[in-house]
Amino acid sequence: MAKIAINIATGSLQQDEIIVGIDLGTTNSLVAIIHPETKQPTALKEHNSSAIVPSVIYFDEANNIVVGEEAKKYLEISPERTIYSAKRLMGKSYGDVHDKTSLLSYKIIDDGSESLVKVQLGDRFYSPIELSSFILKELKSRAEHILKTPVNKAVITVPAYFNDAQRQATRDAGKLAGLDVLRIINEPTAASLAYGLGLKKIANATPQLIAVYDLGGGTFDISILRIVEGIFEVLSTNGDTFLGGDDFDKVIVQHWASRAGISMEDLSVNKLLAQGLRLKAEAAKKYLSTSDLFEDKLEDLSLILTKTEFEELIFPLVSKTIDCCTNALKDAGLKISDIESVVMVGGSTRVPLVKKTVSDFFDKIVNDQVNPDEVVALGAAIQADVLAGNNKDILLLDITPLSLGIETAGGLMDVLISRNAKIPSRASRQYTTQVDGQASMRISVYQGERDMVKDNRKLAEFNLSNIPGMPAGLPKVEISFLINADGILTVSARELRSGVEQSIEVKPQYGLSDEQVEAMLHDSIANAKEDIAVRALTEARTEGEQLLKSTERFLQKNTAELTKEELIHTASAMQALQLAITMDNKDLIHQKIEALNELSRPYAERIMDEAIAKAMKGKHV
Predict the structure, then answer these.
(1) Domains along the chain?
(2) Average pLDDT over residues 316-329
(3) Which residues are catalytic?
(4) The pTM is what?
(5) Among 169, 101, 569, which residue's Cα sits nearest to residue 110?
């Protein structure tokens, strides 16, 4: 194994290579660096081209992948094989997004469970992590082409409201793209850095209170930050993960469709027309930022929109963002007059109505001088420069050199606190039981960067016992990790319904030399692709086994309600899934899971409807 030096202060591999800042966006992504000569943050682009890479991925029939500008043309030609807005799906279950997918041109798998969503393309199934990794891989390749040097380390930004699962999914996507993700930072923090806010660490400075208004393609968030002596603290965040420029486009599409007598049901069936209208709506939105009238045609449809009509259409959406601003201020315990500066982020803030409404609400001129598409990536580049040790003005708190997590079904490592997390740090996540009547749960704590616990270092283990006997999936066990300022980890487990609790103290870094940490990091990067493939296969098998168990329980209870054909077909589908689980093909397992779900859904709904009708008989609502 090649010898690599390590800096325990950042937990990062110390080679003479560049660290890039990446904005992995819903609509567009880009990569930035600190220019070696000017020392200014710079978005990477070739000659006169744009720095922006559209977050669009096209898969051809042979599953070859095209990413970025080239993939955008397939939105109209082959919408069902062209993925966009994958960031909206990161760390989400189908239950989180099922009512938000009606106008998506690609297929989201509905397995009726709380497992993470998957996108189906022909006979292949992709997680949002894999989809995001394709975008990151394109950014990495683009950066290497422009800089003529390998790029292996990055700081990646996420919305401030992203939860632990979404942050971990972003890390995994980076790892799968071949990037050592040194830090995940909040987009509002990055934007503030790009505006030069908090760049100077001034002792005894008065805290600055900043509002960062970020309206992108798919998401909106408002964050209230306190910056003092180079330390950024998020006081409150509010927003809507399904509100952005895409939704401006959607109301324009609905407006045009309504005028033409086309129903939304028609559009959900006619994907080509829906996608064509969506792209025309996007063009109208941009055009009306500087003009008063948009006119165009799509097939035999005449598409006309005035600036006044456009502003009337989007006004309810813009008002929603202002409601979020009010709530964020309330949560932070602040008044409008307390805010010193309002930073505008995201391409959708170019819409004049947005700018005016925000300025009126905060009663001050907004900061919009930095390119709103680039501002987050530029801030990420500044943070990367800090991690590289080139900028001493921003304080970096102590961090955890390796990830900490627990073992879950199939021997997987579920990370609760990621490496490079600032300490003190706290994280919690809820789990449940796998077996009916399960009275105890073994909690095994591990440290390391690999996806399977067998490849990581075991730190501790304890049992949470006396869980009341309940059906599988009903108990809610919250596992919490707390690292104090001395690096001591306390792990506690609590069954929320009964209050049963157990905890243990661990010293995470105890007994590990710099060389061992270095080896663990090296292994995680070298084996990233294989690790994530093993994780995907293990998760598919676990999901398949759980579906077989729940289907079996359902059949035992409802055999009399099913026809002979339904029982025979279900048994055959279960057998096919059982066989697929024994093979090393995650896509085949997902196919058989989907087949069993498709088969059982109609009679499961029928039996449920009959049960409700029976229960409600003779009652008035």
Answers:
(1) 5-195+371-387 (3.30.420.40), 202-369 (3.30.420.40), 404-523 (2.60.34.10), 530-616 (1.20.1270.10)
(2) 95
(3) 23, 87, 187, 214
(4) 0.70
(5) 101
